[in-house]
C-alpha cells in the first residue's frame, strides 16, 4: 500500500528519509502525469431525436414514489378454505383439533383427580359429559376459524412454539389420556 501511494504521489520515502527505506522506488521510474487533462462528454441519440439510455443506467436510476398509488392487493390465502380440504383425513383440521382437545382433557382429568379424588370414569358420570360436549364444540370452532380464513399453523409458529411441537404434544396427550383411562380401569380407582 505504501509503495502504491509513493508511486502515485511521485516522491518516495527514500528522498525524504535519506535512504532508510530500501524498497522505495527510484524517483526517475515514476511517470509524470499531466494535470490539465480535458474530458469530453458525448451522448448518442436515436433517429427520433430522443436520448438512448443504457438499460443498466435505467436500472440504477431510483424511481420516485407515487403520491397516489393503488393499494397493495390483499394477501391470498395460504391454504385451501374448503371444508372438505380442511377436514380431510390428511388435512390440517382433525389432528390439530383432536390434539388440542386431548391436551385440555388430560390436564383437566389430572387436575380433577388431584382436587376431588375422582377417577376419569366417575368424572364423566358426575356431569362431565356436558363439560366435554361444551369444551369440544368451543375448541373445535376456535381451531377451525383461522383455517377457514386461510391461515396455516406453520405461518404462525416461531421459536419454541412451533406447529410440529403442537402436533407432538397433542399426540402425547392423546396417548396419555388413553393410558390414564386404561390404568384407572385396570387399577379400579384413581391413578394419583
From TrEMBL:
Concerning InterPro entries, the annotation shows: Chloroa_b-bind (IPR022796)
Which terms in the GO cellular component ontology are assigned?
Answer: chloroplast thylakoid membrane
Q: Which residues cross the membrane?
A: 127-148
Q: Which domain of life is it from?
A: Eukaryota
- Asked whether the keyword DNA repair is assigned, the reply is no
Question: Is Transmembrane helix there in the keyword field?
Answer: yes
* Subcellular locations according to the entry: Plastid, Chloroplast thylakoid membrane
Q: Which residues form a coiled coil?
A: none
Keywords assigned: Chloroplast, Membrane, Plastid, Thylakoid, Transmembrane, Transmembrane helix
| Recorded topology in the membrane | Multi-pass membrane protein
**Family to which the UniProt record says this protein belongs:** Belongs to the ELIP/psbS family.
Q: What is this protein called in UniProt?
A: Early light-induced protein
Q: Which organism is it from?
A: Dorcoceras hygrometricum
